Amino acid sequence: MLTSESKKEFDDARRQAFIEEMLSFFTGRSTDLLSFDEIQHKLRLQDASYKGLQEIELDKIVGSVGRYRDFTRTFLPKRDEIADRWRRVDEVAHTSGYPPIEVYKVGDVYFVRDGNHRVSVARQHNAKTIEAYVIEYKTPVPITSADELNDILLKAERARFLEKTNLDQIRPGHNVEFTEPGRYRLVREHIAFHKYLKETECGCEIPYEEAVASWYDNVYMPVIRLIRERGVMKHFPGRTEADLYAWILLHRAELESRVQKLGAVSTEDILDTVTLEKSPNPLRRLMGYFRRQLDLQNLPLQAERKQFLDDTQIDQLRPGHGIECTEPGCYQLLREHISTHKYLKETELQTEIPFVEAVTSWYDNVYQPVVQKIMSRGVLQNMAGRTATDLYLYVTSRRAALEENKEAVQEILDEAILQEIEQESQAISPIGRLMQFLGRVFAV
User: pTM higher than 0.70 for the full model?
Assistant: First the structure.
């Protein structure tokens, strides 16, 4: 029979959980337990070994296999539904102690496989350690009890980025370090696109490490030097120069397209805007500001096309251009191709070029060569309802992704991708297939 004392202890624990979750609202620190399955997937944990029975610190237990939604990070109960089980464990603990739990060890922390309620009760009783059968996984990155999910994801993404790019050896002492997940992937895609543009313009193959060095010296560092000259970082406590570089990269095309139409938006102008819009949480405020100013909500396809034609003046610059997409978002992707092409050419030429010149250069030297290959091979005959522009986006994006994923030790030819397209008989659209592919390639 459950006692009133166990009810009091559970009620106390629930009140503490409520207070802990309320405080997290103000501190911004998560109170959630980590999911072992998610960590295993993100870190690609495979190699494990049994370490036997050990005395482990309760403070180092940070997650659970199946009960991570039932308890806070300090294993306080979050749901009234677990009261009976918790109270039974509590009463057994007062008389018999705690049977050993089962845990997975990853780095310096543990995830409960069996015994979540025992951990919760033990912590409520102010115990410092508990016996556990330990299975340890090898991890590519160090993990501590202070790490939140984003911290672990960042460590994993950074390790994968450095493994793929070899940037530590190519440019020792570099400062490419982000504070938000997803940015390392963005830079890898940018390097791959930088490599593709340079190869397209020179008509030659460039080793991947050379492309990494070129991106770092000619694209990344000029922006970083400008950030330092302007003293912008003093307005962004807790952020890095690489964070601001990524923000500029993400929003340059949007700003040029929506704010100044056909006029270029310089990095200096963007940095001035950043400085003027500083706040205690400047990155979030900027994101909200530009979402409001740029009106980036989903536009109908016809409206997207009209805006693309207005922005680029491609009808006047290249009559009969044949640029037409069949899926929302593709015109914006084309616009970003042009803006990136313009930025890279200006960086290499060390001079500003008119936007219309960038449009024609992209069309003649990047877009048309790919489309000509598509048309000469008759690939569209087997792609009902699709256009050459659809396939251009598929080919260029997949080519860059393939080279990056294979560490770009050899050139991936457009012809090889087109041949692959010809051989595929599935009814999946090229763009849909691309998104599936990129999801696999860049999964961390």
Answer: no
